[in-house]
Structure formats: structure tokens, C-alpha cells
Amino acid sequence: MSLRTNRPTVTRIASTTAAVLLAATGLLATGGAAHAAVPTAMPTAVPATSDTLANGGTLAPGASLTSGDTRLVMQQNGDLALYTTGADGAGDRQPRWHSGTTGEGNKAELRADGNLVVTAPDGGALWQSRTGNDDCRHMPWTKLTVHPGGDMSILATTDSEAPYFVRLWSASYGLQFPCGSPAR
Fold first, then answer.
1. pLDDT by residue (tens digit) across 80-106?
2. DSSP of 21-52, one letter per residue?
3. Domain count, the chain
4. What angle do CA 165, 136, 72 make, to 5 degrees?
5. Which CATH number fits the domain that encloses residue 104?
6. d(CA 116, CA 12)
């Protein structure tokens, strides 16, 4: 019996492993130290590092992602909102972006196709980033990352040896190349 290796598969596994390790340490998104995991409000929510939500991840009501002075929270009122605070975490929260959704029990999910969606309890989409398969050139792995200074991005990577990420969407600029224009 001979063992054959499939070089593209081995390369893909090695690339994925490296990207996961870098993301886990926080170096990929923040260039800094890792943060402890943030507990979620519901046990069914997919665990996230404190500043990143991976494909299939969910932010239940009350759950949040934090990076430095910036916090993304799925509020109890159903609005997904991004805030900044003072450099030391003190002071008033300054709103930076929000989905404009309302409804008790709403949740935010980064779907497997790369689309960030705020859904009602019945599963209906209330807001979406339009970064899924039908809306932009999808890449195999996506993640939502919160950045210090008041921004968040949906990043995608290709099936390559190096963990290069492309910004598909950000709270500051909306859809970005290669996604096109939101007014279609």
C-alpha cells in the first residue's frame, strides 16, 4: 500500500492551520496580543475571540466583540451597533455605526458564504452586508474583525499558501472591491 499526498490539499491544510494560529493569537487582525474569549449570552452561539467572529459565528442578544476602544454589540433592542469609548475604556460611548434594526431576539451571524446578516427570531433577514456568494467574489474563508479606533471589517482570504486577507466590507466605507456597489 502506498501513501500518496495531494500537494494542493496539504498546502491548503498548512495554510489554514497557519491562519488559524495567527488569528488565535490576534496577530493577523490587530498586530498585537491575543485577547481572552468573550462569553456569549446564549450557549448556542459560536464562541469568538474578543475581536473576531469567524464563518458560522453568531452574536446573540447582549454578546459583543471588543478591540481596544471599540466594541461591536448585538443590543437587546435588536440593533447591531459599533461604539468607541475613551482610550482607557472610560467615558461615554460614541456611536460609530449601526444596522438600524429593531426587535427583541434579533441576532447577528456571519454566514458560511461570508454574508453578515442581522436576523429576526423567525430567521428573516433584517439587514445584510451583501458580501455573500451572490453579491461579491466570495473567497473560501471570511471573518468579521473589530478594529481599535472605531471600525470593523469583513475580511476574506483565498485558498493560497500565504494568509492574505482582502477587505470586502467595512463599517466606515461599506462594500469594497471586489464586491462592487451597494446600489445595484
1. 999 998 666 566 889 999 999 999 999
2. HHHHHTHHHHSS---PPPPPSSTTSPP-BTTE
3. 1
4. 60
5. 2.90.10.10
6. 25
